[in-house]
Amino acid sequence: MSLSRRAFLLAVPVGVAGCATNSPPAPPTPIVATPPQRFPTPAPEVKALYEGMKDGDWELPAVDLTLVDPRYLRQKVTYSSPYPVGTIVVDTPQHFLYLVQENETALRYGIGVGREGFAWSGEAQIARKAAWPFWYPPVEMQARDEKARRWAGGMPGGLDNPLGARALYLYQDGRDTLYRIHGTAEARTIGRNVSSGCIRMINHDVIDLSARVPVGTNVVVLEVQTGES
């Protein structure tokens, strides 16, 4: 299955973009400030998965789980899949990432995905993994964003880095697809279409996923059904 991507005329703010896009910018859309939606505090055993933690040289703060729909918090679920145990399956329309396990189960994580028009599908492999990775803004982004130009040589890993605590680099046939599974500190963006094509996870979740999968893991991104014949 070949990897595909579609690009529409959408501007991608540097604050949420972790990957490259070749689309030209569109006129900015006015932003109306609205208070964030709040959800009930989850059970203690779930909350414990997202407490503050030390990861290498970084102190990762606890996640405010009232900003995340409980559906998108890490959990083991029943999952029937044609793919082998250990495969990562990404369901972009539903904003779920599944790590296939034995006995028709999977670990399910919530994700944020690319805005409409940056959707992609196909199969790829994790060619490398990085903890607190550097971020290199795409040339197109540098051309239109002063902050991106400031980091043209690469932004060091850290709590403000758009790639978060981990990045899993997706390759196909030995070539970089420019897509990543990566972390984010912006928990409220999980379950939304917010970035320029990459798959973003809560930092705690991408740390957990990265520890479970080796380099070479197959990643299947399900095709988005558009209703077209």
From TrEMBL:
The active site is at H182, C198. Pathway: Cell wall biogenesis; peptidoglycan biosynthesis. Keywords: Cell shape, Cell wall biogenesis/degradation, Glycosyltransferase, Hydrolase, Peptidoglycan synthesis, Signal, Transferase. One of its GO terms (cellular component) is extracellular region. Pfam families: YkuD. Residues 86-222 form the L,D-TPase catalytic domain. It comes from the Bacteria. Belongs to the YkuD family. This is L,D-TPase catalytic domain-containing protein. The lineage of its organism: Bacteria, Pseudomonadati, Pseudomonadota, Alphaproteobacteria, Hyphomicrobiales.
